[in-house]
Amino acid sequence: MGDRIIYSTTYGDMCPGCKKPKGECACRAIEKEAVTPSDGIVRVRLSTKARAGKGVTVITGLPLSENDLAKVAKNLKHKLGTGGTVKDKHIEIQGDRVDEVIAELIKQGYKAKRG
Question: What is the set of domains in the chain, with CATH numbers?
């Protein structure tokens, strides 16, 4: 069980393939993560469930790995000037930004719609 280090307090997350820190990964197993299955349409909706009435824009259906989702989320947060996160293979952007997110995703080449 000593071979299965997945997190180190010294190095952070470890690569499951080569057992090195993610930043020094030689096998690129992390980049080969499963891509989220998609029908080609990115859906953007407003969600207030379990958020005390506060709205969050939820983006689902992006056919990207977890790392690529984080990059898209960072770009959207920067463009919109708001916070957000990646959870469970979808992006959450703070506030009711559905129309702005759809416009930005279409600019980036995705087929996006409200839903």
Answer: 1-32 (no CATH), 33-114 (3.30.780.10)
Tell me the pLDDT tens digit for each residue of 39-55. 788 999 999 888 787 89
Computed over every residue of the chain, the mean pLDDT equals: 81
Tokens 């957000």 -> residue: 84
Distance, in Å, from the CA atom of 39 to the CA atom of 106, rounded to the nearest integer, reads 16
pTM, 2 dp: 0.68
Q: Cα-Cα-Cα-Cα dihedral of 54, 55, 61, 67, to 10°?
A: -60
- H helix count then E strand count, the chain: 2, 7
CA-nearest of 55, 51, 25, 45 to 90 is 45
Nearest to 75 by CA among 97, 114, 101, 54: 101
